[in-house]
Write a structure and sequence with these properties.
heterodimer; A: 6-stranded mixed beta sheet; 13 strands; B: 5-stranded mixed beta sheet; 4-stranded antiparallel beta sheet; 13 helices; rod-shaped
Chain lengths: 285, 479
C-alpha cells in the first residue's frame, strides 16, 4: 500500500476546514418529496418508485409526503429534502432557488393542460358560465388546480372569491374530481393529465364530470432540487435514475401506473407559459 | 248460515273455545309487552349507537368545521358512511353557525352554502330519539363543540329499517308462536274435555232414553272404577233407576189391588141389582105354580119375569160397556151417562140416599170424548161419593158444556176428603193415594183424557169434585 504524502494530508485537512460537506450529503437516506400531483395514495406506486430509485442510486430512499404543495416546497427550500416532484407554479415562484432535474414525458411531450370541469350534463363551455358556482380548487400552489383559473379571472379583473359563490381547496386533483362528481362542488379546476389518467383508471369517477374548458399547453410538473448544498454525485445518480426509469423493471411498472412514458431533462423555458400567468397576477402572484 | 249461540254449543266445543280465547288474550298481552320491551331496547340501542357514531364523527370533523373547511368536512362525512351497521346513516350534514350548509355526505340534497332546511331544525336530540310507526328513518342533530365553543351542528338521518325489520320479525314470530300454541292447547283442551265428559254423555243418553221408556241400569263395567264424582253419579243414577223400578212395580201391584176392590164393589152392587128383580121373578114363578090356573095370573107373572130379565140385561150390558176390554170406543153418549145412573142406583137405594141427577148435554158435543175412560172416571167418582155420603146421604151429579170442555161435578154430603188425598188429586200425583178408593184410576184416566180435576168444599160441608174434560180431545190425540 502506497503511503499517503504529507502534502496531500495537509491539502485534505484544509479542504475539510474551508469547504465542509453539506448536511444532506452526510445523510444515509435520500429524501424525495412528493406533492399530491397524482395518485400519491397508491402504495404500490410509491413502493415501485422507491425501489427503482434506491436501486439506481444505491442509497436508501424515503418518500416524503405532505398534505399541501407549500409544505413540500418549504421543506425543499429549507434543505430538508434532496429533491421533490413539485408543480410548475412553485417552481416558477422559486426558480431562483430551485433547479430542474427532470420533467415527465406524457404523450411524447413534457406538456399538459389545466381543465375546468363541471358535473356531468352541465351545459357550459367556458369559464364565464361557471359564475356563482361552488368551485373546487386543488391547491393554492397548484398551476392547473388554482393558478390557471385565477389568472383567467384576473384578466377580467375578478378574483375567485368574487366570481364564485364559494371556493374551497381539496389539496389533491383527484379530490377535485371527486368533489365535482359527488356534487359537493358545481365546478372545479383540475390537472388535465390527472383527469385523463383517472378516466382510464377510475372511469366511474370522471364519468360524472364533463370538461368545460381546457387551457393552453403548459410545462408538466417537474422534479427539482435546490441550486446549492447538494451532493453532486448523488444528484447525478438520481437524475440518471429518473431519465432511465423506463429501463428498470420497477421504474417501468411505476411509469405504467403513472401513464407516463418517462422523465427527461428540460429547459426552464418550458415553464414560460406558467411564468406568464404568474406575471399576469402582478404582486398577488 | 245462522251461527248457533255459544251457550247452545256442546261443552266439548265450548271449553276448547274458551281456552283458545284465553290463549289469544294472554298471547296478545304477552306480545304487546314483548314488543314494548323490544321497542324500548331498540330505542336505547339506537340512542347508544347514534351517540357513538355521532361522537366519533364529531371528533373527526370539528377541526375542519372550525376552519370552515368544506372538503375536509365532506371527506370525513363521506368516509364515515358505512353500510354494514344495524343503524346506518343515510346522510350526514354539517351546518355552520350562520345556518348554512358547510358540507353534506349528500351534497345534492344539502348543497354547500345553502340555507339549512326547516326539517334539520326539527331533528331530535339523541336523548329524544324514538322509533315511531313505520318510519324507516329518524333525524337527529348534535352540536359541534370545539373547546366548549359551538362551531356548528351535525345533522344525521339514520336508517332504522333493520330495527323495524327485527320488530316485524319478532311480531311475526309471536303471532305464529301464539297461534300454534293456541291451536295445540285448544286441541288438547278439546280432547281432554271430551274424555272428561264421556261419563256425562253416557248418563245423558241414558236419561234421554228414559223419557220414552223405562230407564235402564248402567252396566257395572261402564261405571268408572275411581272414587270420583262420576262414579258417585253413576251409582246414584243406578240407585234412582232401581228405586223407580220398585216404585213402578209397587204401583202396578196397587193398581191391581184397586181394580179388584172396584170390581168387588161393582159386583156387590150388581148382585144387589140383580137380586131385586130375582125376588120378584121368583115370586112370579111361585104365583104361576100355585095360581097359574087363574085367568090373567100367568100373563101378569110372565110380564113380571120379562121386566126382571130386561132389568138384569140392562145391568149386564152396562157392566160390559164399562169394563169390556178391546171394545171399540165410539165416544161418550147419553146412553153412557144413563148406564152410570143405572150402575149407581143400587148403591144409592141400598144406603137410602138421595141422588140428584142433572144432565143435559147432547151426544154430538160428547162424542169427541173417549167413553171408556170417561165412564170409569165418573163411575168411580159416583161410587166414592155414595160411600162418602153414607146412610141417607145426598149424592149430586151434573154436567154442562163450558167453552171447549164438559164440566162434570160429583158432589156428596160426606165429611170431605183428607188433605193429602185432595192435594194428590189436584196435583195429579197418584203416588200418595192409598189404594182401594178408586181415586188413583180417576187421576190416571183424567190425565189420559187431558182433563183437569179439582176438589172444593161447599159451604154446607159437602165435597164437590170437578172434572173438566176437553172436547175434541179424541181428534187432537189422533193427530
Amino acid at each position: 500500500m502506497k503511503p499517503i504524502g504529507r502534502r496531500r494530508v495537509l491539502i485534505g485537512a484544509a479542504a475539510a476546514l474551508f469547504f465542509p460537506a453539506p448536511a444532506i450529503a452526510r445523510r444515509r437516506t435520500f429524501l424525495f418529496g412528493l406533492t399530491p400531483v397524482f395518485l400519491t395514495n397508491d402504495r404500490k406506486l410509491l413502493a415501485l418508485i422507491r425501489s427503482h430509485i434506491a436501486e439506481a442510486i444505491n442509497v436508501p430512499v424515503e418518500l416524503v409526503q405532505r398534505r399541501t404543495y407549500q409544505d413540500i416546497t418549504t421543506m425543499l427550500l429549507a434543505g430538508e429534502l434532496d429533491a421533490a416532484w413539485i408543480c410548475g407554479y412553485p417552481y416558477i415562484r422559486h426558480r431562483a432557488e430551485l433547479e430542474l432535474i427532470a420533467v415527465p414525458v406524457w404523450h411524447g411531450r413534457q406538456l399538459y393542460q389545466a381543465y375546468l370541469i363541471a358535473h356531468e350534463g352541465r351545459d357550459a363551455g367556458q369559464l364565464d358560465q361557471l359564475a356563482g358556482d361552488v368551485h373546487a380548487f386543488s391547491d393554492p400552489d397548484s398551476n392547473s388546480g388554482y393558478l390557471v383559473t385565477r389568472s383567467e379571472l384576473a384578466r377580467n379583473r375578478q378574483s375567485p372569491d368574487q366570481f364564485f359563490s364559494r371556493a374551497f381547496f381539496t389539496y389533491g386533483h383527484r379530490n377535485v374530481v371527486r368533489a365535482v362528481s359527488r356534487g359537493l362542488a358545481q365546478s372545479g379546476s383540475v390537472d388535465g393529465y390527472v383527469w385523463e389518467a383517472l378516466s382510464t383508471l377510475e372511469p366511474s369517477l370522471t364519468a360524472k364530470t364533463s370538461i368545460v374548458w381546457k387551457s393552453e399547453w403548459l410545462g408538466f410538473p417537474p422534479v427539482a432540487r435546490r441550486r446549492f448544498g447538494f451532493d453532486a454525485g448523488l444528484q447525478r445518480d438520481f437524475a440518471a435514475a429518473l431519465t432511465t426509469m423506463q429501463k428498470g423493471q420497477d421504474g417501468k411498472a411505476a411509469l405504467d401506473l403513472l401513464q407516463l412514458e418517462g422523465f427527461a431533462q428540460a429547459d426552464p423555458t418550458l415553464f414560460d407559459g406558467i411564468a406568464a400567468r404568474v406575471s399576469s397576477l402582478g404582486n398577488d402572484g | 248460515m245462522k251461527i248457533p249461540a255459544f251457550s247452545s254449543l256442546p261443552l266439548t266445543v265450548r271449553a276448547p273455545l274458551i281456552v283458545a280465547v284465553l290463549m289469544v288474550l294472554v298471547g296478545a298481552i304477552a306480545s304487546e309487552r314483548v314488543l314494548a320491551s323490544l321497542t324500548a331496547t331498540q330505542e336505547r340501542q339506537l340512542r347508544d349507537l347514534a351517540a357513538l357514531y355521532l361522537d366519533g364523527l364529531s371528533v373527526a370533523i370539528v377541526p375542519a368545521a372550525t376552519r370552515n373547511d368544506v372538503w375536509e368536512t365532506f371527506d370525513a362525512l363521506d368516509r364515515a358512511q358505512r353500510h354494514d351497521r344495524s343503524v346506518r346513516a343515510i346522510v350526514t350534514t354539517v351546518i355552520s353557525e350562520d345556518g348554512s350548509i358547510l358540507a353534506s355526505s349528500d351534497p345534492t340534497r344539502f348543497p354547500t352554502g345553502s340555507v339549512a332546511k326547516a326539517s334539520i331544525g326539527e331533528a331530535a336530540s339523541i336523548d329524544a330519539l324514538t322509533i315511531s310507526g313505520d318510519r324507516r328513518t329518524v333525524s337527529v342533530a348534535v352540536p359541534l363543540l370545539n373547546q366548549g365553543q359551538r362551531v356548528g351542528r351535525l345533522y344525521a338521518e339514520l336508517d332504522v329499517s333493520v330495527l323495524l325489520e327485527e320488530r316485524r320479525s319478532a311480531l311475526l314470530l309471536l303471532i305464529l308462536g301464539n297461534a300454534a300454541a293456541t291451536l295445540v292447547l285448544a286441541l288438547a283442551g278439546y280432547l281432554v274435555v271430551r274424555r272428561m265428559l264421556r261419563p256425562v254423555k253416557i248418563l245423558a243418553e241414558r236419561m234421554g232414553a228414559a223419557e220414552t221408556a223405562m230407564p235402564e241400569l248402567i252396566p257395572e263395567k261402564e261405571v268408572p272404577n275411581d272414587a270420583n264424582e262420576y262414579a258417585l253419579l253413576f251409582r246414584k243414577y243406578n240407585s234412582l233407576v232401581k228405586a223407580e223400578k220398585e216404585r213402578k212395580e209397587a204401583a202396578e201391584r196397587l193398581a191391581a189391588q184397586e181394580r179388584l176392590v172396584s170390581l168387588g164393589r161393582l159386583a156387590s152392587s150388581v148382585a144387589h141389582e140383580i137380586n131385586n128383580p130375582l125376588g120378584g121373578m121368583l115370586n112370579a114363578v111361585d104365583t104361576m105354580k100355585h095360581h097359574g090356573d087363574r085367568p090373567g095370573v100367568t100373563e101378569q107373572s110372565i110380564g113380571l119375569l120379562e121386566r126382571g130379565l130386561l132389568g138384569i140385561k140392562d145391568v149386564v150390558r152396562a157392566m160390559l160397556d164399562t169394563n169390556r176390554p178391546g171394545r171399540v170406543d165410539t165416544g161418550l153418549s147419553n146412553s153412557d151417562i144413563d148406564d152410570l145412573r143405572l150402575l149407581i142406583s143400587p148403591e144409592v137405594r141400598r144406603l137410602n140416599q138421595t141422588l140428584t141427577w142433572a144432565f143435559d148435554v147432547g151426544d154430538t158435543a160428547m162424542a169427541s170424548i173417549d167413553s171408556v175412560p170417561a165412564r170409569q172416571v165418573l163411575l168411580n167418582l159416583l161410587l166414592n161419593a155414595s160411600r162418602a155420603a153414607g146412610q141417607s146421604g145426598t149424592v149430586k151429579f151434573n154436567a154442562e158444556v163450558k167453552q171447549d170442555a164438559i164440566a162434570f161435578c160429583v158432589c156428596d154430603s160426606g165429611s170431605g176428603l183428607p188433605a193429602d188425598l185432595r192435594e194428590g188429586i189436584e196435583l195429579g200425583d197418584v203416588s200418595g193415594i192409598r189404594p182401594g178408593v178408586g181415586l188413583r184410576t180417576v187421576v190416571e184416566k183424567v190425565d189420559q183424557l187431558a182433563g183437569e180435576i179439582d176438589v172444593c168444599e161447599i159451604s154446607s160441608g159437602h165435597t164437590a169434585i170437578h172434572v173438566r174434560l176437553p172436547l175434541h180431545q179424541r181428534s187432537s190425540k189422533a193427530a
